[in-house]
Amino acid sequence: MSAAPASTAGLTALILAGSRGPGDPLAVYAGVEHKALIEIGGRSMLERVIAALAAVEEIGRIVVQIERPDLLDAHPALRAAAGDKTLEVIAAAHSPSSSVLAALERLGTPLLVTTADHALLLPEWVRYFVEHRERGADVCAALAPSEAVLGELPQTRRTWLRFRGRRYSGCNLFYFATPASAGVARIWLEIENQRKRPVKMIRRLGWMTALLYLLDKLSLDGALRRLGRLAGAQLAVVEMPFGLAAVDVDKPADLDLVRQIVAR
């Protein structure tokens, strides 16, 4: 993999657009052939994400990782959404983590990663994330604190990440800055592979880490240090002041909510 340059000019952005196959429950609910093609406000989710990334000056290339590369040719609006930015398509692997690993091998670093179901994504969110990332970190992730999310969606019900009295929600934005960041993707893959074997997964992460988390005694900084040691990489987060950045479309209720937000 290539080393990270000093600036983000010409940054490559990767959109994870894999689905759960032809029977994807969300695609079935929306009546489309692929989840990424679900329409919201007259545009598909994938088109909306491509357009948001294309409006960010630092991004020079957008790569869609999908198990159906033919969809981009079948839907010209997707290429049009990229404007004058380079738009490429590569095949998705069998899971998000393995897709990211394959993309890092092929595309190098730095690599900005988001998802096709991040249908509300705005250019200013991406700019804020890129501008506020910790420069010495190998990987940065975007998290929205609960107060920002609840300020936008006071009735929302979600599973929070809890760190010593504070609650966060993921924002589906990641910055893989250096070749060492591949270690994080490998740990992610391990966790995905062990999700049906919780004891083995906890043993890998560390019993004390799991206990501290369950007791709400694990700080966010402590969690980043512990995971970083496992991955052989330095990790950091960017706290996003945008509550809606934590909203993605993973189930029918999410789709209904996002359509309501866009229609406001």
From TrEMBL:
Q: Does the keyword NADP apply?
A: no
| InterPro entries cross-referenced by the UniProt entry | MobA-like_NTP_Trfase, Nucleotide-diphossugar_trans
Molecular function terms from GO: nucleotidyltransferase activity
User: Where in the numbering of this chain does the MobA-like NTP transferase domain appear?
Assistant: 13-177
Query: Per the record's keyword annotation, is Disulfide bond included, yes or no?
Result: no
Keywords (A to Z) from UniProt = Magnesium
A Pfam family hit: NTP_transf_3
* Residue intervals passing through the bilayer: none
Domain of life, source organism: Bacteria
This one is known as MobA-like NTP transferase domain-containing protein
Natural source organism: Hydrocarboniphaga effusa AP103
